[in-house]
Write a structure and sequence with these properties.
The protein is about 30% helix and about 10% strand. The protein is of the alpha+beta class.
Length: about 170
C-alpha cells in the first residue's frame, strides 16, 4: 500500500472515525454492526460501539423478543464474540423444549390438584370478592355514599350531619 493511501486512511480515521462493520444478521433480518475502538482527532479514545439496524422498525416500536437473546447479549457486551446461527437455533430449540415441559408439568399438577380436591385431601381455595383497593380506608366495606353534595355557593359549615350520628344539640 502506498504511503499516500495510508496517510489518507489515517486522516479519514482521525476526522470521521472508522466505518461500521457488518458483524451478522439474525433470522428476522436485523443487521448487527460494530464500530471498533479508535482515537478521535482530539486524542480521546472512543470505545467500541455495537448496534443493530432493525428491519422496518422505529425505535419506539421495539418489543421483547424482536431480537434473539444471544444478539442482545452481544450488543450489551455481555459476550465477546457474536453468536452463530447454529447457536441461536440450538438455543431456540432448547427454549421450545422447556416450554413444552413446563406445559406438561402444569397439566399434571392441575390433574393432581383436581384428584386431591375430589378425595378431600386438600380444601378447595375459597373465592372471595372484595371491592375496592386494600389501601383504601373503606376496604371490604360498603363504599361511602356520595350524599350530600353541595357547591361552594350553598355550603353551610355544620349544616349537615351524617345520618344516624345524632346531633349533640338533641342530647
Amino acid at each position: 500500500m502506498s504511503r499516500a493511501l495510508q496517510a489518507l486512511r489515517a486522516l479519514r480515521l482521525r476526522l470521521v472515525g472508522p466505518a461500521k462493520e457488518l458483524v451478522g444478521t439474525d433470522q428476522f433480518g436485523n443487521k448487527y454492526y460494530r464500530v471498533p475502538k479508535y482515537e478521535s482527532r482530539a486524542g480521546q479514545i472512543i470505545p467500541e460501539r455495537r448496534f443493530v439496524e432493525a428491519v422496518n422498525r422505529e425505535a419506539y416500536q421495539y418489543q421483547i423478543g424482536d431480537f434473539p437473546a444471544e444478539w442482545e447479549a452481544w450488543i450489551r457486551k455481555k459476550r465477546e464474540d457474536p453468536p452463530t446461527i447454529e447457536e441461536i437455533l440450538r438455543n431456540e430449540t432448547y427454549r421450545e423444549e422447556m416450554k413444552q415441559k413446563v406445559k406438561d408439568v402444569s397439566e399434571k399438577d392441575k390433574l393432581l390438584q383436581a384428584k386431591e380436591y375430589e378425595e378431600g385431601l386438600v380444601a378447595e381455595p375459597s373465592h372471595t370478592q372484595v371491592k375496592g383497593h386494600a389501601s383504601a380506608p373503606y376496604y371490604g366495606k360498603k363504599e361511602p355514599s356520595q350524599d350530600p353534595t353541595s357547591t361552594a355557593n350553598t355550603f353551610q359549615p355544620g349544616a349537615w350531619m351524617p345520618p344516624g350520628s345524632g346531633s349533640s344539640q338533641n342530647k
